[in-house]
Amino acid sequence: MNQKKYTLRELVIYFLKLGTWGFGGPVALVAYMHRDLVEGRKWLHEEEYKEGLALAQLAPGPLAAQLGIYIGFVHYGLFGATLAGLAFVLPSFLMVLALGVAYESYSGLSWMRDVFYGVSAGVIGIIAISAYKLTVKSLGKLHITSIKKNWLLWIFYLTGVTLTVVRQREEILLFVLCGIIYLLYKSPPKWIKKPVTLPAFLLTGVSFWAFPDDKLFEIGIFFLKAGAFVFGSGLAIVPFLHAGLVVEYQWLNESQFIDAVAVAMITPGPVVITVGFIGYLIAGFPGASIAALATFLPCFLFTVILAPSFKKISKNESIKAFVDGITAAVIGSLLGTVIIIATRSITDIPTAFIATGTLLALIYIKKIQEPQVILATAIIGILIKNLI
After folding, report:
1. Could you give the CA distance from residue 265 to residue 374 in angstroms, rounded to a whole number?
2. Which end of the chain is more exposed for a tag (fewer CB within 10 A), N or C?
């Protein structure tokens, strides 16, 4: 490793600030890290950053948080990874916790309902744009050459869309099956005959969650699976959460789930931190803490376990192919979830206009950010409810 160009205290302060002011989702957050730490402060070499980004993309769980953990690990090992990860996540966790308290206390008031009337419709436009960007990034642009090149991934993608809409939930087994099929197609699997780190990692930590309360135990297991089995970036976790929280366990109703996604949009830091808000609605502060810890634990373990030998692992074509197959199906499932949520959130002409306006604003106004859109839709929702 290279000589340290920063103290651990400086790194922790940086991630506290990024977690407090870093709006824009995972793609923006990893760009901020490159701008600040590679180009600006020169704390990291370009190669170190690229290795961390590659590891984060290969791993399940939140992309930006994994990269932050890796950066902490580069020069300060396990302790640095732990402090960097906590510093990055803590500010937004406290924010969503406060929003959870306010939501539970005041959701019965008209102003809160008015705010989320507009925000819920605006979220549809934001998720739709995110789904499109994830599609283009992972599968390529929508033209003949790209589709021919990645034809099998497009099949996985469309299958994910279709099954999610038809069954009203995402299918984990589909994701795993797509990963295995693409692995067999793209890179003959040497590691299937001699298993390596990935299968063992996916089982890590399941027995750790032994809480006396049955609901807390269920919360821990559910969000542990969300962190361990969901590939993709930020909102890719939405289909899994929707299927479990609304359909299977019925811990949240559709309206509460939409509001939870909205909370992810209006807070800085990792989008996935909305699990803290969700956990609070289910089981108060213990639920919020367990949901957040369980979601981020897999990506933390994955990063610190694999980081020392990642140069070798990152060249494993079988692992890359497995993750590519899973990601294609997951992003398709995300689009399917957008369709499901849209049919339930766009209930009248005003909400249709809000959703469409959000979509057009994000496409044509280059400098606009998601928090600005959320603020605008909240104001519009209040005005519509009070003037019409």
Report:
1. 7
2. C
Question: Which of 43-57, 107-121, 247-261 tops mean pLDDT?
Answer: 247-261
Helix boundaries (H) for 59-150: 63-106, 110-139, 144-149
Identity of the amino acid at 227: G
What digits encode the pLDDT tens for the residues 160-198? Answer: 889 888 876 666 678 778 888 888 888 765 545 554 444
Question: What would the two tokens of residue 155 be?
Answer: 């099949």
Amino acid identity, position 236: A
Nearest to 221 by CA among 210, 234, 212: 210
SS3 label, residue 312: helix
Q: Which of 325, 314, 318, 328 is nearest to 50 (CA)?
A: 314
CA dihedral 121, 123, 126, 129 (to 10 degrees): -70
Cβ-based neighbour number of residue 174 at 10 Å: 20
- Which one, of 368, 382, 374, 337, lies nearest residue 128 by Cα? 337
Say whether 169 sits in a helix, a strand or coil.
coil
First to last CA, the chain: 63
pLDDT tens, 59-111? 777 878 989 999 999 889 999 999 999 999 999 999 999 988 888 887 655 66
Answer left, alpha or beta for residue 22, where phi above 0 means left and psi between -120 and 50 means alpha: beta
Give the whole-angstrom CA distance, residue 299 versus residue 65. Answer: 8
- pLDDT tens digits for 249-280? 999 988 888 888 778 766 777 878 889 999 99
The answer to whether residues 67 and 89 touch, using CB atoms and an 8 Å cutoff, is no
Dist CA 18 CA 357 (whole Å): 29
**3-state helix/strand/coil string of 236-297:** HHHHHHHHHHHHHCCCCCHHHHHHHHHHHHHCCCCHHHHHHHHHHHHHHHHHHHHHHHHHHH
Distance CA 347, CA 340 (A): 13
- Other CB atoms within 10 A of residue 214 CB: 8
Please say whether the beta carbons of 238 and 261 come within 8 A. Answer: yes
